[in-house]
Amino acid sequence: AREEEKAEEESSDLDSSDEEMDDSRMGNRRVEATNVSESKEPASSCQEKEVEEKKEMSEESGPARASSKKPSEPAIFISVDRLPEIQDSRLRLPVLAEEQVIMEAVRENSFVVLCGETGSGKTTQVPQFLYEAGYASGTGIIGVTEPRRVAAVSMSHRVAKEMNLSTRVVSYQIRYEGNVTSDTKIKFMTDGVLLKEIQKDFLLQRYSVIIIDEAHERSVYTDILIGLLSRIVPLRNKKGLPMKLIVMSATLRVEDFTENRKLFPTPPPVIKVEARQFPVSVHFNKRTPLEDYTGEVFHKTCKIHRMLPPGGILVFLTGQAEVHSVCRRLRRAFPFRRATDYSDEMKKFKKAKHKRTSLPRIDLDNYSALPVDEGDEDRLAGIDDEGSDLELGDDAADTEEKADPSLPLYVLPLYSLLAPEQQAKVFQPPPHGTRLCVVATNVAETSLTIPGIKYVVDCGRVKKRFYDRVTGVSSFKVSWTSQASANQRAGRSGRTEPGHCYRLYSSAVFGDFSLFSEAEITRRPVEDLVLQMKDLNIDKVVNFPFPTTPSAEALVAAEQLLVSLGALEEPPRTGRVKEMERARLSCPISPLGRAMASFPVSPRYAKMLALGKQQDCLPYVIAVVAAMTVREIFEDLDRPAGSEDESSKLAQRRARLAQMRRLWAGQGASLLLGDLMVLLGAVGACEFAGCTLKFCEENGLRYKAMLEIRRLRGQLTNAGVDLRVKCLLTEVGVQVVCLRQIVLAGLGDHLARRVQQEELLDPKWRNGYKTPLLDEPVYIHPSSALFKTLPQFVVYQEVLETTKMYMRGVSAVEPEWVPQLLTQYCHFGSPLETPSPWLCASTGRVKCHCTSTFFRCGWQLPAIEMD
Ligand code: CDP
Ligand code: MG
């Protein structure tokens, strides 16, 4: 008892928040008060050693030398004043039963892996355990990373509510917003936010614990954070500033972390939380719809709602557009007119002070600004046909309870970019007498648990980023998900009672799914990651302890591209071959590279932005980069027409778009910026018109793409106030030349040269272009602004294969710019005799003309002046 008193005294000294100690909790635990994160070394001396430490990380010795085992670290206890109903619901969570085991493991080890079914309480409870154990009572706070913004925001609110603390104490930070204060003790953030913080303070001295949540998702930033923290934690321990890392994951393949000796020399303890899961009957479709799976999802959901007993429905789709389209159709199919218990909406309605005489029709459709998918109306007409191919499982039909066909359907969308207030709705009970139906992307797969779900409808697909090795451009594509993900989706229906999962594909198709989803890092080019790491002074990226290492080719290609963009210092060209090889893979970052690393776009575009800033034409470069990042800004008007009437309308619109393209391409000097001038003109015109749906429809622009461009421009400008592109009126010529040079500097490896008349051995090369990477000719598309001009040299954004290999995003290049701006890609010959060398008065050096060739393919370029 004496010891306890002493502990209390000491701990209350350390605890600045004046919380009362909870004696009852202390009884059965070891109590010795030490501040877990008290600094024993002045901060300045820590910083001095930092650079040295980062170097250590990339040294070949690799694995951390400091042992991950630490002597028992005692803790203090902070009481939390929870509301009784919260306390009750907490006690039902499986993770509560493991609190002792988890906290014991955390005290004894620097690294702990915790895995458990989604919904077992990991995300909401573990930060609370740590808080109560005093991990946030000193100078250090508890940090929790999430791969998704939705989760970071909603979990911080949930935990604040459970702990009865204000959001000043339990806060969140996502890229462009947050509510962190100096009182924050638990901070939820996206993994990207923590990575940026490491760039500022490598030892993360603000934190006493970091929880990496949803590690099974294997997002690139999560992987890198785990690699970095596997080194940072031992460094902190060595300095006497103890720090803990807890990796939390759903029950999926934790071996990638635990069995990786490069990452953790001694395997960290793995704590498994057994969750109660009710049986889920899985029903496969007999056939697999390949085209209109959203239609199939819609029909299946209607059918469940009409025929099956009460219970929430959770629908999995791949993206925001699909979610909206299905929500809209469901809302139309099951209109929701009785305003009995919609107090929320009523309040909002009254606030808005609408003047209406009759009872208001509650507008649950908050997305009227977005276009309805065409054809929806027609398909809606047929919803009452009960398609015989739609089978609901036998087990479902056996259930005693009967469905109530008049039950209204309360439809809610859920996806990452949805406004937080809208997201929060899915956690609240649906209005009395309605059935909840959440139409979600895969955010609902593991990050968020929606209460009361009994039926899951799974489209079996997922939207993923893909990388095209030929064009070097990434894109989002919809593909089949993995078996692990599909099972995870099914499990969402068995949380509170036995559930049913309807898979809209056959069991044979399921058998062909891969077992697990691949780690994102193996599916994409890594030049942006390599640049971020170099920005952290991790020069030898090959030695970095990745949970899954990207391929060696991918790393080499990334390093080469970054060197040629000038983001990395050039490796020495003399010395022993082996040393040169090694130096080639550990080039330090250059000042330009640092500037580039601060932009959230891929390095080619970041280079353009950095140059744009330097050349004082940033708004234009931002507009061009944003437009190039969005996949297609023009409406597809080449689609087949359904009727004669439609066909003539399409022809009219095609003519209008062609006219607008010509207008946006400009004349004279600006025409040479080519397709990028068209993009710039379109963005400028659309902004000038207020970025309305009407303007886009009239001029053949995709409204959604234009909204996305606007958002990205806002992000890149980091102000989002005046988004108008100023008209290129003054000195158009100079500005356009500047933009063309900037584009060349960024896309230098995408240079193409027109085939000369004398090289025309094969007619297929007529009007064709040669590129360094492809053996076949590529062409300028008839819709391109440069189709008639056919400049000698062009740079392109990507090559797209349709009927021919066409270059997209083409811009003309003056031949003499190539040896000047792309010296890294050129060979220079011996000095020319005429004109003879001369002395440069300003530099005092001898100058001469030298021949140059584009070394990748030996193209002759104009001779340039050299020292
Ligand atoms: O992280 P994990 O998946 O293990 O579980 P969690 O996210 O901590 O959720 C634990 C429980 O809290 C679940 O049963 C959720 O339904 C519930 N919860 C909630 O009711 N409202 C929220 N905003 C978040 C979670
Ligand atoms: Mg969780």
UniProtKB/TrEMBL annotation:
- A cellular component term (GO) from this record? nucleolus
Q: Name one GO biological process term.
A: maturation of SSU-rRNA from tricistronic rRNA transcript (SSU-rRNA, 5.8S rRNA, LSU-rRNA)
Q: Does the keyword Iron-sulfur apply?
A: no
Helicase ATP-binding domain: residues covered = 103-270
Residue stretches of biased makeup (Acidic residues)? 6-22, 377-398
Q: Belongs to which family?
A: Belongs to the DEAD box helicase family. DEAH subfamily.
- Protein name (database record): RNA helicase
User: Which residues of the complete protein does this chain represent?
Assistant: 159 to 1025 of 1126
